[in-house]
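Dissemination and training. As part of the outreach component of the grant, students in the summer workshop were shown how a complex can be specified as a set of sequence lines and then modelled as a single object. The example used during the hands-on session is reproduced here so that future cohorts can follow it. Participants entered these lines:
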Amino acid sequence: MAGITDLGVGIGWRSEIDLTVERLPGVDFVEVVAENLHIGRLPESVTLLLERGVPVLPHAVSLSLGGADEVDLNRVEHLGGIAEAVGAPMVSDHVCFVRAGGLDSGHLMPVPRTKDALDVLVANVELAQRNLPVPLALENVAALLEWPGGELTEGQFLAELVERTDCWLLVDVANLYANARNIGTDPERFLDEIPLERLAYVHVAGGVEHGGVYHDTHAHAVLPEVLGVLDELCSRVKPPGVLLERDDNYPSDTEIATELAAIRAVVDKHRG
Amino acid sequence: MVTPMTSQGTQLTVEQVGYLTAGPGRAAETALARLLDAGLVRVSREGLVSAVHLSNCGAITPLEARTLSRARTGARFDQVVRSTAFSTEMKALHQDLLDRRLLQRPRHRNPAWGFSLTLAIALFLLGFVAAEFFLAVPIALLFALWQRGRRAVTRQGRQALLHVSATDRVHNVAVYGFCGKVNRRPVADEFGLPQSVVKMLPLKKHRKRQSSSDGGGSGCSSCGSGCGTSSCSSGSSCSSGSGCSSGSSCGGGCGGGGGD
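and obtained this result:
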Protein backbone atom coordinates (compact mmCIF):
# COMPACT_ATOMS: atom_id res chain seq x y z
CA MET A 1 0.00 0.00 0.00
CA ALA A 2 1.83 3.01 -1.27
CA GLY A 3 1.90 6.19 0.72
CA ILE A 4 1.58 4.92 4.25
CA THR A 5 4.89 3.21 4.70
CA ASP A 6 5.99 5.75 7.25
CA LEU A 7 3.13 7.55 8.93
CA GLY A 8 5.07 8.23 12.09
CA VAL A 9 3.33 9.02 15.36
CA GLY A 10 -0.15 10.45 15.35
CA ILE A 11 -3.20 11.24 17.39
CA GLY A 12 -6.90 10.83 16.99
CA TRP A 13 -8.34 14.16 15.89
CA ARG A 14 -11.36 15.11 17.97
CA SER A 15 -13.19 18.39 17.68
CA GLU A 16 -12.78 19.10 21.39
CA ILE A 17 -9.01 19.11 21.07
CA ASP A 18 -8.66 20.38 17.53
CA LEU A 19 -6.52 23.37 18.45
CA THR A 20 -4.38 21.15 20.67
CA VAL A 21 -3.82 18.71 17.83
CA GLU A 22 -2.89 21.56 15.51
CA ARG A 23 -0.33 22.92 17.98
CA LEU A 24 1.18 19.72 19.30
CA PRO A 25 4.71 19.16 18.17
CA GLY A 26 5.46 15.87 16.54
CA VAL A 27 2.03 14.96 15.22
CA ASP A 28 2.84 13.18 11.98
CA PHE A 29 -0.67 12.05 11.12
CA VAL A 30 -4.19 12.09 12.50
CA GLU A 31 -7.17 9.83 12.39
CA VAL A 32 -10.74 11.08 12.22
CA VAL A 33 -13.91 9.24 13.15
CA ALA A 34 -15.62 9.07 9.79
CA GLU A 35 -19.12 9.10 11.23
CA ASN A 36 -18.44 12.48 12.83
CA LEU A 37 -17.56 14.22 9.60
CA HIS A 38 -19.68 15.45 6.73
CA ILE A 39 -18.52 15.07 3.18
CA GLY A 40 -18.11 18.51 1.65
CA ARG A 41 -18.07 20.25 5.00
CA LEU A 42 -14.84 19.23 6.66
CA PRO A 43 -13.96 20.94 9.93
CA GLU A 44 -11.66 23.92 9.49
CA SER A 45 -9.06 22.23 11.65
CA VAL A 46 -8.97 19.12 9.47
CA THR A 47 -8.65 21.27 6.37
CA LEU A 48 -5.80 23.15 8.00
CA LEU A 49 -3.99 19.91 8.83
CA LEU A 50 -4.45 18.71 5.26
CA GLU A 51 -3.01 21.97 3.97
CA ARG A 52 0.00 21.36 6.16
CA GLY A 53 0.42 17.98 4.54
CA VAL A 54 -0.59 15.98 7.60
CA PRO A 55 -2.14 12.67 6.50
CA VAL A 56 -5.71 12.22 7.71
CA LEU A 57 -7.01 8.67 7.98
CA PRO A 58 -10.74 7.97 8.34
CA HIS A 59 -11.64 5.45 11.00
CA ALA A 60 -15.15 4.01 11.11
CA VAL A 61 -17.06 2.55 14.03
CA SER A 62 -20.38 1.63 12.52
CA LEU A 63 -19.94 -0.70 9.55
CA SER A 64 -20.66 -3.70 11.80
CA LEU A 65 -18.74 -5.98 9.46
CA GLY A 66 -18.93 -8.87 11.90
CA GLY A 67 -22.69 -8.77 12.06
CA ALA A 68 -25.15 -11.08 10.40
CA ASP A 69 -27.16 -8.13 9.14
CA GLU A 70 -26.57 -6.92 5.63
CA VAL A 71 -23.83 -4.32 5.42
CA ASP A 72 -25.28 -0.83 5.16
CA LEU A 73 -23.74 0.41 1.93
CA ASN A 74 -24.67 3.98 2.76
CA ARG A 75 -22.24 3.82 5.65
CA VAL A 76 -19.59 2.30 3.41
CA GLU A 77 -20.22 5.00 0.83
CA HIS A 78 -19.86 7.68 3.49
CA LEU A 79 -16.58 6.21 4.68
CA GLY A 80 -15.30 6.12 1.12
CA GLY A 81 -16.48 9.68 0.56
CA ILE A 82 -14.59 10.90 3.59
CA ALA A 83 -11.50 9.04 2.41
CA GLU A 84 -11.69 10.82 -0.93
CA ALA A 85 -12.38 14.17 0.73
CA VAL A 86 -9.24 13.96 2.84
CA GLY A 87 -7.17 12.10 0.26
CA ALA A 88 -6.61 9.20 2.61
CA PRO A 89 -4.56 6.23 1.44
CA MET A 90 -6.71 3.86 3.50
CA VAL A 91 -9.68 3.56 5.84
CA SER A 92 -10.38 1.34 8.79
CA ASP A 93 -13.06 -0.18 11.00
CA HIS A 94 -13.22 -2.98 13.53
CA VAL A 95 -13.60 -6.72 13.60
CA CYS A 96 -16.87 -6.52 15.47
CA PHE A 97 -20.57 -6.01 15.18
CA VAL A 98 -22.46 -3.05 16.57
CA ARG A 99 -26.03 -3.90 15.67
CA ALA A 100 -28.29 -6.88 15.34
CA GLY A 101 -32.02 -7.32 14.96
CA GLY A 102 -32.47 -3.62 14.41
CA LEU A 103 -30.80 -2.70 17.69
CA ASP A 104 -27.58 -0.78 18.08
CA SER A 105 -25.30 -1.97 20.85
CA GLY A 106 -23.51 1.34 21.27
CA HIS A 107 -20.42 -0.77 21.77
CA LEU A 108 -17.95 -2.68 19.64
CA MET A 109 -19.08 -6.27 20.23
CA PRO A 110 -16.63 -9.12 19.67
CA VAL A 111 -17.36 -11.63 16.94
CA PRO A 112 -17.61 -15.35 17.79
CA ARG A 113 -14.37 -16.88 16.57
CA THR A 114 -15.98 -19.66 14.61
CA LYS A 115 -15.61 -20.66 10.95
CA ASP A 116 -19.20 -19.66 10.32
CA ALA A 117 -18.71 -16.23 11.83
CA LEU A 118 -15.52 -15.83 9.81
CA ASP A 119 -17.44 -16.63 6.62
CA VAL A 120 -19.93 -13.89 7.44
CA LEU A 121 -17.17 -11.44 8.26
CA VAL A 122 -15.26 -12.25 5.08
CA ALA A 123 -18.36 -11.75 2.94
CA ASN A 124 -19.07 -8.40 4.58
CA VAL A 125 -15.48 -7.23 4.30
CA GLU A 126 -15.34 -8.15 0.63
CA LEU A 127 -18.57 -6.27 -0.01
CA ALA A 128 -17.20 -3.22 1.77
CA GLN A 129 -13.90 -3.44 -0.11
CA ARG A 130 -15.71 -3.52 -3.43
CA ASN A 131 -17.44 -0.27 -2.50
CA LEU A 132 -14.45 1.56 -1.05
CA PRO A 133 -12.04 3.63 -3.11
CA VAL A 134 -9.06 2.77 -0.90
CA PRO A 135 -7.80 -0.26 1.02
CA LEU A 136 -9.49 -1.29 4.24
CA ALA A 137 -7.74 -2.07 7.52
CA LEU A 138 -9.48 -3.86 10.35
CA GLU A 139 -8.83 -3.51 14.05
CA ASN A 140 -8.91 -6.02 16.87
CA VAL A 141 -11.34 -4.98 19.62
CA ALA A 142 -11.28 -5.13 23.39
CA ALA A 143 -13.69 -7.73 24.69
CA LEU A 144 -15.13 -8.27 28.12
CA LEU A 145 -16.25 -11.77 27.18
CA GLU A 146 -15.56 -14.55 24.75
CA TRP A 147 -18.36 -16.21 22.91
CA PRO A 148 -18.55 -19.94 23.61
CA GLY A 149 -17.57 -22.44 20.95
CA GLY A 150 -14.61 -20.53 19.57
CA GLU A 151 -12.65 -22.55 17.03
CA LEU A 152 -9.77 -20.15 16.44
CA THR A 153 -7.60 -17.90 18.53
CA GLU A 154 -7.95 -14.20 17.84
CA GLY A 155 -4.63 -14.20 15.99
CA GLN A 156 -5.64 -17.16 13.85
CA PHE A 157 -9.02 -15.57 13.17
CA LEU A 158 -7.43 -12.35 11.95
CA ALA A 159 -4.75 -14.16 9.98
CA GLU A 160 -7.39 -16.09 8.08
CA LEU A 161 -9.40 -12.91 7.56
CA VAL A 162 -6.36 -11.23 6.00
CA GLU A 163 -5.60 -14.24 3.85
CA ARG A 164 -9.13 -14.45 2.47
CA THR A 165 -9.84 -10.74 1.99
CA ASP A 166 -6.40 -9.21 1.56
CA CYS A 167 -7.38 -6.57 4.10
CA TRP A 168 -4.88 -4.76 6.29
CA LEU A 169 -4.58 -4.94 10.04
CA LEU A 170 -4.88 -2.13 12.51
CA VAL A 171 -3.50 -3.54 15.74
CA ASP A 172 -4.69 -1.91 18.94
CA VAL A 173 -2.12 -2.79 21.60
CA ALA A 174 -4.36 -1.38 24.32
CA ASN A 175 -7.07 -3.81 23.27
CA LEU A 176 -4.55 -6.62 23.36
CA TYR A 177 -3.61 -5.60 26.88
CA ALA A 178 -7.27 -5.33 27.90
CA ASN A 179 -8.01 -8.79 26.56
CA ALA A 180 -5.00 -10.20 28.34
CA ARG A 181 -6.23 -8.68 31.60
CA ASN A 182 -9.89 -9.56 31.23
CA ILE A 183 -10.10 -12.80 29.31
CA GLY A 184 -6.57 -14.11 29.57
CA THR A 185 -5.47 -13.92 25.95
CA ASP A 186 -1.75 -13.87 25.23
CA PRO A 187 -0.58 -10.73 23.34
CA GLU A 188 2.65 -12.37 22.29
CA ARG A 189 0.84 -15.33 20.79
CA PHE A 190 -1.48 -12.91 19.01
CA LEU A 191 1.54 -11.14 17.52
CA ASP A 192 3.05 -14.48 16.56
CA GLU A 193 -0.07 -15.50 14.69
CA ILE A 194 -1.01 -12.41 12.72
CA PRO A 195 0.68 -11.51 9.42
CA LEU A 196 2.69 -8.52 10.59
CA GLU A 197 3.60 -7.67 7.03
CA ARG A 198 -0.03 -6.61 6.63
CA LEU A 199 0.17 -4.19 9.54
CA ALA A 200 -1.27 -0.83 8.52
CA TYR A 201 -0.69 0.99 11.79
CA VAL A 202 -1.12 0.68 15.53
CA HIS A 203 -3.48 2.16 18.09
CA VAL A 204 -2.44 3.02 21.65
CA ALA A 205 -4.91 4.15 24.29
CA GLY A 206 -5.42 4.46 27.99
CA GLY A 207 -7.78 2.73 30.32
CA VAL A 208 -8.55 2.01 33.93
CA GLU A 209 -9.40 -0.94 36.14
CA HIS A 210 -12.77 -0.80 37.78
CA GLY A 211 -14.37 -3.58 39.76
CA GLY A 212 -11.66 -6.01 38.80
CA VAL A 213 -12.20 -5.38 35.10
CA TYR A 214 -9.89 -3.34 32.90
CA HIS A 215 -11.82 -0.84 30.81
CA ASP A 216 -10.33 0.46 27.60
CA THR A 217 -11.78 3.90 28.20
CA HIS A 218 -9.65 6.10 25.96
CA ALA A 219 -10.19 8.57 28.81
CA HIS A 220 -7.28 7.73 31.06
CA ALA A 221 -3.53 7.72 30.81
CA VAL A 222 -1.75 5.11 28.75
CA LEU A 223 -0.41 2.46 31.11
CA PRO A 224 3.23 1.43 30.93
CA GLU A 225 2.02 -2.13 30.34
CA VAL A 226 0.30 -0.99 27.15
CA LEU A 227 3.52 0.59 26.00
CA GLY A 228 5.10 -2.74 26.88
CA VAL A 229 2.85 -4.47 24.36
CA LEU A 230 3.78 -1.81 21.81
CA ASP A 231 7.42 -2.49 22.62
CA GLU A 232 6.84 -6.18 21.99
CA LEU A 233 5.20 -5.42 18.66
CA CYS A 234 7.99 -3.06 17.63
CA SER A 235 10.56 -5.72 18.45
CA ARG A 236 8.99 -7.83 15.70
CA VAL A 237 8.12 -5.28 13.06
CA LYS A 238 8.53 -1.61 12.34
CA PRO A 239 4.97 -0.32 12.44
CA PRO A 240 4.17 2.13 9.62
CA GLY A 241 2.46 4.33 12.17
CA VAL A 242 1.40 4.47 15.80
CA LEU A 243 -1.56 6.56 16.89
CA LEU A 244 -2.71 7.71 20.31
CA GLU A 245 -6.46 7.56 20.85
CA ARG A 246 -8.08 9.81 23.41
CA ASP A 247 -11.84 10.26 23.39
CA ASP A 248 -12.81 11.85 26.68
CA ASN A 249 -11.52 13.51 29.84
CA TYR A 250 -8.90 15.19 27.73
CA PRO A 251 -5.72 15.99 29.63
CA SER A 252 -3.56 19.03 29.21
CA ASP A 253 -1.60 19.64 26.05
CA THR A 254 1.55 18.86 27.99
CA GLU A 255 0.25 15.48 29.12
CA ILE A 256 -0.82 14.59 25.61
CA ALA A 257 2.57 15.64 24.29
CA THR A 258 4.23 13.51 26.96
CA GLU A 259 2.21 10.45 25.93
CA LEU A 260 3.09 11.01 22.29
CA ALA A 261 6.74 11.33 23.25
CA ALA A 262 6.57 8.09 25.21
CA ILE A 263 5.08 6.32 22.20
CA ARG A 264 7.73 7.77 19.92
CA ALA A 265 10.46 6.65 22.32
CA VAL A 266 9.24 3.06 22.12
CA VAL A 267 9.08 3.19 18.33
CA ASP A 268 12.48 4.85 17.99
CA LYS A 269 14.06 2.37 20.39
CA HIS A 270 13.71 -0.33 17.76
CA ARG A 271 14.75 1.79 14.82
CA GLY A 272 18.31 1.66 15.98
CA MET B 1 -7.86 36.18 41.71
CA VAL B 2 -4.26 35.40 42.26
CA THR B 3 -2.52 38.66 41.65
CA PRO B 4 -3.73 41.64 43.57
CA MET B 5 -3.33 44.85 41.66
CA THR B 6 -2.38 47.88 43.63
CA SER B 7 -3.39 51.32 42.68
CA GLN B 8 -3.11 54.15 45.10
CA GLY B 9 -3.87 52.01 48.08
CA THR B 10 -6.82 50.20 46.56
CA GLN B 11 -6.19 46.56 45.98
CA LEU B 12 -8.06 45.11 43.05
CA THR B 13 -8.12 41.56 41.90
CA VAL B 14 -7.96 41.05 38.19
CA GLU B 15 -11.62 40.01 38.17
CA GLN B 16 -12.51 43.23 39.94
CA VAL B 17 -10.52 45.16 37.37
CA GLY B 18 -12.54 43.39 34.70
CA TYR B 19 -15.80 44.21 36.42
CA LEU B 20 -14.95 47.87 37.00
CA THR B 21 -13.68 48.22 33.46
CA ALA B 22 -16.61 46.73 31.62
CA GLY B 23 -19.01 44.96 33.91
CA PRO B 24 -19.81 41.38 34.83
CA GLY B 25 -19.30 40.08 31.32
CA ARG B 26 -15.72 41.28 31.40
CA ALA B 27 -15.20 39.81 34.87
CA ALA B 28 -16.51 36.50 33.54
CA GLU B 29 -14.12 36.74 30.59
CA THR B 30 -11.33 37.37 33.05
CA ALA B 31 -12.13 34.26 35.07
CA LEU B 32 -12.17 32.22 31.87
CA ALA B 33 -8.89 33.79 30.80
CA ARG B 34 -7.22 32.75 34.05
CA LEU B 35 -8.44 29.18 33.60
CA LEU B 36 -7.10 29.16 30.05
CA ASP B 37 -3.83 30.63 31.25
CA ALA B 38 -3.53 27.91 33.86
CA GLY B 39 -4.33 25.20 31.34
CA LEU B 40 -7.45 24.18 33.23
CA VAL B 41 -9.78 24.58 30.28
CA ARG B 42 -9.35 24.45 26.56
CA VAL B 43 -11.34 25.92 23.72
CA SER B 44 -11.94 24.29 20.37
CA ARG B 45 -12.13 25.97 17.00
CA GLU B 46 -15.89 25.72 17.18
CA GLY B 47 -15.84 27.55 20.48
CA LEU B 48 -16.50 24.60 22.75
CA VAL B 49 -15.01 25.21 26.16
CA SER B 50 -14.13 22.04 28.00
CA ALA B 51 -12.35 21.31 31.22
CA VAL B 52 -8.92 19.77 31.08
CA HIS B 53 -9.54 16.62 33.06
CA LEU B 54 -12.92 16.45 34.68
CA SER B 55 -12.05 17.58 38.17
CA ASN B 56 -12.81 21.00 39.60
CA CYS B 57 -9.27 21.33 40.89
CA GLY B 58 -7.27 24.42 40.15
CA ALA B 59 -9.97 27.04 40.39
CA ILE B 60 -8.91 29.75 42.79
CA THR B 61 -11.81 32.15 42.90
CA PRO B 62 -15.53 31.46 43.11
CA LEU B 63 -15.92 32.85 39.60
CA GLU B 64 -13.29 30.45 38.31
CA ALA B 65 -14.95 27.54 40.10
CA ARG B 66 -18.25 28.48 38.52
CA THR B 67 -16.68 28.77 35.08
CA LEU B 68 -14.81 25.51 35.43
CA SER B 69 -17.93 23.75 36.59
CA ARG B 70 -19.74 24.93 33.47
CA ALA B 71 -16.86 23.82 31.31
CA ARG B 72 -16.91 20.31 32.74
CA THR B 73 -19.91 19.43 30.65
CA GLY B 74 -18.65 21.41 27.69
CA ALA B 75 -20.35 24.59 26.60
CA ARG B 76 -19.94 27.28 23.99
CA PHE B 77 -17.54 30.09 24.71
CA ASP B 78 -20.26 32.72 24.93
CA GLN B 79 -22.49 30.50 27.04
CA VAL B 80 -19.72 29.94 29.56
CA VAL B 81 -19.12 33.68 29.86
CA ARG B 82 -22.81 34.41 30.08
CA SER B 83 -23.38 31.71 32.67
CA THR B 84 -20.66 33.10 34.90
CA ALA B 85 -21.77 36.68 34.34
CA PHE B 86 -25.26 35.87 35.58
CA SER B 87 -24.12 33.71 38.47
CA THR B 88 -24.57 34.19 42.18
CA GLU B 89 -20.80 34.29 42.44
CA MET B 90 -20.83 37.36 40.20
CA LYS B 91 -23.47 38.96 42.40
CA ALA B 92 -21.16 38.43 45.35
CA LEU B 93 -18.33 40.11 43.49
CA HIS B 94 -20.63 42.96 42.61
CA GLN B 95 -21.74 43.30 46.22
CA ASP B 96 -18.15 43.40 47.35
CA LEU B 97 -17.45 46.26 44.96
CA LEU B 98 -20.52 48.05 46.24
CA ASP B 99 -19.42 47.53 49.83
CA ARG B 100 -16.02 48.98 49.00
CA ARG B 101 -17.72 51.93 47.32
CA LEU B 102 -16.00 51.22 44.07
CA LEU B 103 -19.40 50.70 42.52
CA GLN B 104 -22.71 52.33 43.22
CA ARG B 105 -26.24 51.72 42.12
CA PRO B 106 -26.42 53.38 38.75
CA ARG B 107 -29.27 55.62 37.87
CA HIS B 108 -30.40 55.63 34.31
CA ARG B 109 -30.35 58.91 32.49
CA ASN B 110 -33.78 60.29 31.78
CA PRO B 111 -34.00 61.49 28.20
CA ALA B 112 -35.79 64.57 29.52
CA TRP B 113 -32.83 65.72 31.59
CA GLY B 114 -31.80 68.16 28.91
CA PHE B 115 -35.23 69.69 29.01
CA SER B 116 -34.91 70.17 32.76
CA LEU B 117 -31.57 71.83 32.25
CA THR B 118 -32.99 74.09 29.57
CA LEU B 119 -35.84 74.95 31.92
CA ALA B 120 -33.36 75.84 34.65
CA ILE B 121 -31.54 78.17 32.26
CA ALA B 122 -34.80 79.67 31.12
CA LEU B 123 -35.87 80.25 34.72
CA PHE B 124 -32.54 81.85 35.44
CA LEU B 125 -32.96 84.25 32.54
CA LEU B 126 -36.54 84.95 33.52
CA GLY B 127 -35.21 85.79 36.97
CA PHE B 128 -33.89 89.03 35.55
CA VAL B 129 -37.41 89.92 34.55
CA ALA B 130 -39.11 88.74 37.71
CA ALA B 131 -36.87 87.82 40.65
CA GLU B 132 -39.16 85.07 41.93
CA PHE B 133 -38.08 82.93 39.00
CA PHE B 134 -34.66 82.69 40.61
CA LEU B 135 -36.24 80.67 43.40
CA ALA B 136 -37.21 77.92 40.99
CA VAL B 137 -33.76 77.67 39.41
CA PRO B 138 -32.15 75.43 42.09
CA ILE B 139 -35.12 73.08 41.99
CA ALA B 140 -34.90 72.75 38.22
CA LEU B 141 -31.15 72.28 38.38
CA LEU B 142 -31.41 69.59 41.02
CA PHE B 143 -34.09 67.87 39.00
CA ALA B 144 -31.89 68.00 35.90
CA LEU B 145 -28.96 66.57 37.80
CA TRP B 146 -31.11 63.77 39.16
CA GLN B 147 -32.44 62.97 35.71
CA ARG B 148 -28.94 63.00 34.30
CA GLY B 149 -28.32 59.77 36.19
CA ARG B 150 -25.02 58.47 37.42
CA ARG B 151 -22.49 55.86 36.41
CA ALA B 152 -22.11 52.57 38.18
CA VAL B 153 -18.42 53.07 38.83
CA THR B 154 -17.75 55.57 41.57
CA ARG B 155 -15.06 58.21 41.47
CA GLN B 156 -13.11 55.97 43.84
CA GLY B 157 -13.56 53.07 41.46
CA ARG B 158 -12.36 55.13 38.53
CA GLN B 159 -9.39 56.30 40.55
CA ALA B 160 -8.56 52.71 41.38
CA LEU B 161 -8.57 51.84 37.70
CA LEU B 162 -6.37 54.77 36.77
CA HIS B 163 -3.17 53.07 37.71
CA VAL B 164 -4.09 49.58 36.63
CA SER B 165 -1.81 48.32 33.94
CA ALA B 166 -2.12 45.09 32.06
CA THR B 167 0.92 43.05 32.99
CA ASP B 168 0.05 39.71 31.44
CA ARG B 169 -2.50 38.17 29.14
CA VAL B 170 -5.06 37.62 31.89
CA HIS B 171 -4.85 41.29 32.83
CA ASN B 172 -5.14 42.13 29.17
CA VAL B 173 -8.48 40.39 29.10
CA ALA B 174 -9.59 42.23 32.22
CA VAL B 175 -8.68 45.58 30.74
CA TYR B 176 -9.33 45.05 27.04
CA GLY B 177 -11.47 41.94 26.82
CA PHE B 178 -10.98 38.94 24.58
CA CYS B 179 -12.15 41.04 21.66
CA GLY B 180 -9.82 43.88 22.46
CA LYS B 181 -6.37 44.67 21.15
CA VAL B 182 -3.07 45.48 22.78
CA ASN B 183 -0.64 47.33 20.59
CA ARG B 184 -2.83 46.42 17.63
CA ARG B 185 -2.51 42.76 18.46
CA PRO B 186 -5.76 40.97 19.31
CA VAL B 187 -5.86 39.79 22.91
CA ALA B 188 -7.40 36.56 21.63
CA ASP B 189 -4.13 35.82 19.83
CA GLU B 190 -2.33 35.70 23.15
CA PHE B 191 -4.50 32.70 24.01
CA GLY B 192 -4.36 31.18 20.56
CA LEU B 193 -8.08 31.72 20.19
CA PRO B 194 -9.47 32.20 16.70
CA GLN B 195 -11.44 35.38 16.15
CA SER B 196 -14.43 33.23 15.23
CA VAL B 197 -14.50 32.06 18.84
CA VAL B 198 -14.20 35.38 20.63
CA LYS B 199 -16.67 36.95 18.27
CA MET B 200 -19.25 34.60 19.74
CA LEU B 201 -19.43 37.09 22.57
CA PRO B 202 -22.40 39.31 21.89
CA LEU B 203 -21.71 42.80 20.72
CA LYS B 204 -23.58 45.51 22.46
CA LYS B 205 -25.77 47.34 20.03
CA HIS B 206 -25.26 51.00 19.49
CA ARG B 207 -27.68 52.74 21.70
CA LYS B 208 -28.89 56.20 22.09
CA ARG B 209 -27.64 58.07 25.08
CA GLN B 210 -29.81 56.85 27.89
CA SER B 211 -27.95 57.54 31.08
CA SER B 212 -24.59 58.55 32.27
CA SER B 213 -23.78 54.98 33.02
CA ASP B 214 -24.48 54.10 29.44
CA GLY B 215 -22.11 56.71 28.32
CA GLY B 216 -22.33 58.08 24.91
CA GLY B 217 -23.61 55.15 23.03
CA SER B 218 -20.21 54.26 21.79
CA GLY B 219 -21.24 50.79 20.79
CA CYS B 220 -19.04 49.15 23.34
CA SER B 221 -19.11 45.44 22.99
CA SER B 222 -19.72 43.40 26.04
CA CYS B 223 -16.54 41.56 25.37
CA GLY B 224 -14.67 44.71 25.40
CA SER B 225 -13.51 45.62 21.97
CA GLY B 226 -15.02 49.01 22.29
CA CYS B 227 -13.50 49.35 25.70
CA GLY B 228 -10.23 47.97 24.72
CA THR B 229 -8.57 51.18 23.98
CA SER B 230 -5.83 52.67 25.95
CA SER B 231 -7.98 55.64 26.73
CA CYS B 232 -10.29 53.36 28.60
CA SER B 233 -7.58 51.80 30.62
CA SER B 234 -6.29 55.16 31.54
CA GLY B 235 -9.70 56.02 32.73
CA SER B 236 -9.78 59.43 31.21
CA SER B 237 -12.23 58.89 28.45
CA CYS B 238 -14.28 56.55 30.53
CA SER B 239 -14.63 58.98 33.33
CA SER B 240 -15.97 61.48 30.93
CA GLY B 241 -18.97 59.34 30.50
CA SER B 242 -18.45 58.63 26.89
CA GLY B 243 -16.49 55.47 27.34
CA CYS B 244 -17.39 52.10 28.59
CA SER B 245 -15.91 51.75 31.99
CA SER B 246 -19.14 52.47 33.67
CA GLY B 247 -19.28 48.89 34.66
CA SER B 248 -22.69 47.51 34.76
CA SER B 249 -24.02 49.00 31.63
CA CYS B 250 -21.11 48.04 29.47
CA GLY B 251 -21.09 44.58 30.85
CA GLY B 252 -24.71 44.22 30.09
CA GLY B 253 -24.15 42.46 26.85
CA CYS B 254 -22.58 39.58 28.63
CA GLY B 255 -23.74 39.98 32.08
CA GLY B 256 -26.99 41.76 32.08
CA GLY B 257 -25.91 44.83 33.89
CA GLY B 258 -24.59 43.81 37.21
CA GLY B 259 -24.57 47.29 38.43
CA ASP B 260 -28.26 47.16 38.87
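The longest helix of chain B spans residues 132-148. Students were then asked to discuss how this feature might be tested experimentally.
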